[in-house]
Design a protein that fits this description.
Blueprint (H helix, E strand, L loop, with lengths): L1 H23 L14 H7 L5 H8 L4 E2 L2 H11 L5 E6 L4 H16 L5 E7 L3 H10 L6 E4 L3 H5 L7 E5 L5 E6 L5 H11 L1
Parallel strand pairs: 1-4, 2-3, 3-4
Antiparallel strand pairs: 2-5, 5-6
Helix pairs in contact: 5-8
C-alpha cells in the first residue's frame, strides 16, 4: 500500500512538473519563426501611391545608410504626409513580435501614411537576415550607434513615433504593439 502511494505521488509530481514546464514555454521562442507576409503582393497593393510614398515602397525591405542626415532629409521630403517611424533591432523580441502589425499596416495605410524603420544599435548581418525573414513594405535606416534613435528622445525598444503632415511629433508610443488593431487605432487617433 505504501509503495502504491509513493508511486502515485511520484506520477502526480512528474505530471505537475511537466505541465508547469509546458505552460512556461521552456524552449519556445516568442518571436515569429517565419512571415506569411508577401512583399511582392504588398508592393502591388501599394502601386499608385503618391510619389514620396512610392519612393519608400521602392526601397521596401532594405536597410539604408546615410545616418542622421539621410533620415532627416527623408522626413523633410515627406512633409504633407503623416509619418510613422518604428525603432527596432533584430535582437529585440518585442520588436520581432510587433513586426507583423507593421507589415500589415504598412501595406493597408501605405498609400496615405509614410512608414520608416530605424534599425538601431544592431549589427548589419543579423538585421539583414531578420529583414529577409520578416520583410517590411518600407525601408529601414541603419543606426548602429543610435544617432537617429536619439532624435526620438530617450526610449527603450521598440518605440514608434507618429508625425503629422507638418512633420510635428504627434505621439511617441513606448514599447511593442500587441496587435495590428492596436497599431491601427493609434494611426487613426494620431494621424
Amino acid at each position: 500500500m505504501r509503495r502504491g502511494l509513493i508511486a502515485l505521488a511520484t506520477i502526480v509530481l512528474v505530471g505537475l512538473l511537466t505541465l508547469g514546464l509546458t505552460q512556461a514555454g521552456g524552449d519556445e521562442d516568442p518571436a515569429p519563426k517565419a512571415s506569411a507576409f508577401d512583399l511582392g503582393q504588398a508592393r502591388r497593393a501599394l502601386a499608385g501611391a503618391p510619389a514620396p510614398l512610392a519612393a519608400l515602397h521602392e526601397q521596401s525591405g532594405r536597410l539604408l545608410g546615410g545616418g542622421k542626415a539621410a533620415y532627416r532629409e527623408r522626413l523633410a521630403g515627406l512633409k504633407g504626409h503623416p509619418v510613422v517611424v518604428n525603432k527596432w533591432a533584430s535582437w529585440c523580441n518585442p520588436c520581432r513580435v510587433e513586426f507583423p502589425a507593421f507589415q500589415g499596416q504598412g501595406t493597408k495605410e501605405g498609400k496615405r501614411v509614410a512608414f520608416i524603420g530605424v534599425d538601431s544599435r544592431d549589427s548589419s548581418g543579423p538585421a539583414a537576415r531578420f529583414l529577409a525573414e520578416m520583410p517590411l513594405p518600407y525601408p529601414s535606416y541603419s543606426d548602429p550607434e543610435g544617432e537617429i534613435a536619439a532624435l526620438l528622445g530617450p526610449s527603450a525598444f521598440p518605440v514608434t513615433a507618429f508625425y503629422d503632415e507638418r512633420g510635428k511629433l504627434a505621439y511617441l508610443h513606448q514599447g511593442g504593439y500587441r496587435s495590428e488593431a492596436d497599431l491601427a487605432a493609434d494611426i487613426r487617433r494620431y494621424l
